[in-house]
Design brief:
- It contains one helix and twelve strands, in the order ββαββββββββββ.
- With 172 residues, it is α+β, with helices and mostly antiparallel strands.
- The protein is rod-shaped, with a radius of gyration of 37 Å.
Length: 172
């Protein structure tokens, strides 16, 4: 309500400091509520967008080519880097042997200067024969052999998803 004084000027009602503080409080609460709503909606939108991107770790194929037969001369033991296998070619055939220790999964190293030990684990000391049999250490099982075949182009292919339980060699 407004009133006029004797001069004719309009007099507005006086606002108390309590009313001014209440007005500031309302404005602050409105701003905080709007901020919380914006953050909540934004977070939900980001999480919804993440839903459409698959959370998958891509790994290399378990079936891969290792090269032409001429790359593996008789008597050779060639480690295929990044795959954890070694290709062994002997007179009666060839095979792919795992270089992953059956104890805790460390990469084992071929031993070059010892005819009795073919492989040794640098982590815990397991030793294996040239054919992958456990000779000593904590390894519980022999090293697996993987299936090998030659494709129609003449390239040698290893399939690490299939273990060669019979330990048969690829005759070439």
């Amino acid at each position: 309500m407004s009133s006029e004084n004797s001069t004719g000027a309009t007099i507005l009602p006086f606002r108390t400091t309590d009313e001014a503080v209440d007005e500031e409080r309302r404005g602050f609460v409105k701003k905080m509520a709007l901020t919380a709503l914006t953050v909540g909606v934004g977070g939900a939108a980001i999480q919804s967008a993440r839903f459409f991107k698959p959370n998958v770790l891509y790994e290399p194929s378990k079936v891969f080519k290792v090269g032409e037969l001429s790359k593996f001369p008789i008597g050779s033991r060639i480690v295929i880097e990044g795959r954890g296998i070694e290709i062994v070619r002997e007179r009666d055939g060839m095979h792919a042997i795992s270089l992953v220790c059956t104890h805790l999964g460390c990469l084992i190293k071929p031993v070059e200067n010892d005819p009795d030990i073919g492989y040794m684990c640098p982590c815990h000391g397991s030793t294996f024969a040239l054919k992958g049999e456990v000779l000593g250490g904590p390894a519980p099982k022999d090293l697996p052999w993987y299936e090998m075949y030659m494709d129609n182009t003449g390239a040698l292919v290893v399939d690490t998803s299939k273990v060669n339980h019979k330990r048969t060699k690829l005759v070439v």
